[in-house]
Amino acid sequence: MTTETLPVAVGAAAAALDTVAEVLRGRHIAVLTGAGLSTDSGIPDYRGKGAPVRTPMNFQTFVGDERARKRYWAGSHLGWHRFRSAEPNLGHRSLARLEQSGLISGVITQNVDGLHTRAGSRHVVDLHGSLDLVVCLDCGQAFGRDSVAARLEAANPTLMTPGDVRTAPDGDAEVSDIDGFTIPDCTVCGGMLKPNVVFFGELVPTVKFTEATALVTGAEALVIAGSSLFVNSGIRLLEQARRRKLPIVVINRGETKGDGRALLKLEAGTSESLAGLADRLAGAPA
Q1: Which strand (E) or helix (H) includes residue 62?
Q2: Is 238 helix (H, G, I), strand (E, B) or coil?
Q3: Is the pTM above the cut of 0.90?
Q4: What letter does residue 2 receive in the DSSP assignment?
Q5: Is 81 annotated as catalytic?
Q6: How many whole angstroms separate alpha carbon 110 and alpha carbon 233?
Q7: 34-44 residue pLDDT tens
């Protein structure tokens, strides 16, 4: 399949969106979103222009290295506060409007920020989990993030004065002073707690991928917004759509692994592009 990259120069953006809307009109659409969708909410991208080089926490290090686990929990706590203050942007709200209009059946997201739900989307498959939950790796008990955050702050009062914080898309933040840091444990069994997100080295839970596959299987087109598709789960969903010969539209600034596999590539920001598509497919908001 040869991908057509649509022009987005001044004066051409409207025509590009018209082309995308014409491909999608009358079709039942599945949507896959990535970190690029949340940049307009103040959450940085992994690979976008200016993104710092970093090594995200992996599962083996988390469970096997206590110091690394302390650093992660300290940084994740600060990142959680930054995520909580973020607000859904125009792109999130536009997808919620498309769902409410019956044009998309739901959103599959690689993001862990919860912004789709807060924007009003009702059917959200969070492939990589969500930062608002914490789970015990020993007994499986789940806890609301707020309750664990309160325990963290009570045990580590210096967390309340962190200074400037650089937050990553997975909710982690850069923290170096973790001497004496206390990690909370499970109040049920005393086991190890972990934010309910998929680390590098972990597999997407089978039930989540099954839900995502069902959305793609039931769709007549796939829109991928704000994802470079460098994570295997996204490529697998794209390939499911490609094998079914669905029209695939990629909206992203910069190169993606879907370039060359999609029908159309819109080299543009996700917020304004999704808003333009929502206006064309669902009508201008009241």
Answers
A1: helix 59-64
A2: helix
A3: no
A4: P
A5: no
A6: 9
A7: 999 999 999 87
